[in-house]
Amino acid sequence: MKTVLYVPLDDRPANLDDVVVQGKAAGIHIITPHLGDIQNRLDSEKTVEGTTLLGTSTPTYGKPSNIHNFILKNAAKVDGFIISSDMLAYGGLIGSRQLREDGGGTYPDYDQDTTRLLDVIKTIKEKYPCKPVFVMDTIMRLATTSFADGLALDAYNESRALMQQPRRSFTAFEDIVNGYNLSPESTEYGETTYFNKEQYYNARQHKFKTNLYILDKLARKGYIDFLAVGVDDANTQGVQINEINYVEARINEWLGGTDGQNPERAIILPDADGLGHALVARMANQLLRGGKKTRYEVKYFGPHGSTIINAYEYMNVHENVVRHVDIVGGVVVTDTTPDVENGNELTNATSVNEASSFDMASELDRMTNRHPGKPGKKPVNIEIVAITALDQVQAAVAQLTSNSEKGLPSVLIDFVGKGPANVDVAEALLNSPYTGRVLGYSAWNTPGNKIGMAVGMGQSRYALITTETHTHALRDAMNAQGSLLFKRFLKDYYYKAVAIADIRTYSRAHALYTNVATLADQNMVLFNSEEDYAHLQTLLRDLMQTHTTALANKTAFAQGYVAIKQICNGEAAYAEYCSALLDYANPDFIWGRAFEITLNPKVTLK
């Protein structure tokens, strides 16, 4: 079994628990830092006056020095590295956007403490040049963090609204970091009420200097084998756009990219919480398959992804899918939108909204090294079934059935649900016996998150089932895969689309403070009493026991129905679902808020 050192973005389940289980499903042992060193929490203290909340304070961030030492201590015994620069340099994602008194010195000597931490990447690559080193970095998001360092929801709303206003275009690094507050007409944007704008720009300057350091001093010089840059909560305009364009230009100039991307060295795209999944998939593909390209087809059931741009992203859904496939070590060879009424498929050689900037044919030629214009003869390895319209869900289920009968592995993504799963889509999928066979699924949060998780699951699982032959290894990996797939439906659908409403209703109805009553569930540890918080935990655990039983009885996961255990010489072998259990005390509000929960069901197959 291969062992991979993994430094997560933070300790939320999407970045930690789920990625570790994903590794197990790919036959990979993932080691992580001590939980106390990667723990992130919102504010834990409050100031009140009667029934009015005056403010909050004292968040928890990770411990970068301990992360640095963890990497050095374990470097010799692992086969590869996946490192979040945000955790290494700032103690996590929310720490990377903490408001600052200054933006650091002049690049590259902007902060010796930060660059010393980052240089551990250089150290391990120099000492172990044959071990793959993958790094995930992020472009700082538009908004501040709610209820961290005293910043409330008003600050989040004000900062996001201001930072998505258009900015003057700059291409030089110093102009970008000094021009954050300039409109396209070079006028200054006005003062803010709920957050310190200058401290925000300082944080942005420091973070962007770190982005540049990683590109310039580490990736450019070969100390990073692959860099995934996620643009956290974004927009098609605003303060991030100059930064995105600058990173794309450096990928072209320094890393051999085209149109700001290089599938072999660096990709930038809208995502953050799906990057861990995507890089574990790339690592599995590298360690188990020698980096062989997996060939993907994308089929949209509803509008083509090139016509969809989410309000929290700057890239259309289809290009986002293509770029995630690049990260995991695959290549999209075709994409279609089935014409259900006429029984035809409309094939897109290049997306309709990106014809001038994104040439699918040239991308394929470059990534597969085949002669331009000559169609490839190799079959598709994985099909992505992307559901973008509710009225097409039955057609998507029919496609899933067809794929399964042909032995073509599938990955499912629900784009209909705007954050959680869409209830009707989820029910239709769960009523199919073929849903339990898919290699990946997600409906969680932004399109980028959904894609990263689902495609990451699918690629890492494919790497294992097409290479592993040992019975015990296949069994253990199968149970992990079944558990993770079950968990995705249990969380994305049953919790995020159903149970969370009861949690929010109770929390808000029992808020201690009148001025946060409508958002008490965003920090229940502070905004509800100890007794009510304990009740919320019990309510959560009771609900999830009920939903676990309901999900286990759905056709997709019912006893006797099967999942893909192995693919050998093109033939699939299967394992039967036997049981699904959720420890009663397991579900919990890991950050003290309703948005995400710890949830680790155990599924057994035979």
Q: How is this structure best described in words?
A:
- This protein is α/β, with parallel strands linked by helices.
- 41% of the residues lie in helices and 17% in strands.
- The chain has 20 helices and 17 strands.
- It has helices at residues 17-25, 35-38, 64-74, 85-90, 93-96, 112-118, 120-127, 153-163, 173-178, 197-219, 241-255, 275-289, 317-328, 360-368, 393-406, 423-430, 447-465, 471-509, 524-527, 530-552; strands spanning 2-7, 28-31, 45-49, 52-57, 80-84, 133-139, 226-231, 266-269, 294-301, 330-339, 344-348, 382-387, 410-414, 440-442, 562-568, 571-581, 602-605.
- It has a 6-stranded parallel β-sheet with strand order 2-1-5-6-7-8, sandwiched between helices. The protein has a 6-stranded mixed β-sheet with strand order 11-10-9-12-13-14, with helices on both faces. The chain has a 3-stranded antiparallel β-sheet with strand order 15-16-17.
- Helix 1 runs parallel beside helix 12 (275-289), helix 12 runs parallel beside helix 17 and helix 13 runs parallel beside helix 17.
- It is globular, with a radius of gyration of 23 Å.
- The chain starts with a strand and ends with a strand.
- 55% of the residues are buried.
Topology of helices and strands:
Elements: E1 2-7, H1 17-25, E2 28-31, H2 35-38, E3 45-49, E4 52-57, H3 64-74, E5 80-84, H4 85-90, H5 93-96, H6 112-118, H7 120-127, E6 133-139, H8 153-163, H9 173-178, H10 197-219, E7 226-231, H11 241-255, E8 266-269, H12 275-289, E9 294-301, H13 317-328, E10 330-339, E11 344-348, H14 360-368, E12 382-387, H15 393-406, E13 410-414, H16 423-430, E14 440-442, H17 447-465, H18 471-509, H19 524-527, H20 530-552, E15 562-568, E16 571-581, E17 602-605
Parallel strand pairs: 1-2, 1-5, 5-6, 6-7, 7-8, 9-10, 9-12, 12-13, 13-14
Antiparallel strand pairs: 3-4, 10-11, 15-16, 16-17
Helix pairs in contact: 1-12, 1-18, 10-11, 12-13, 12-17, 13-17, 18-20
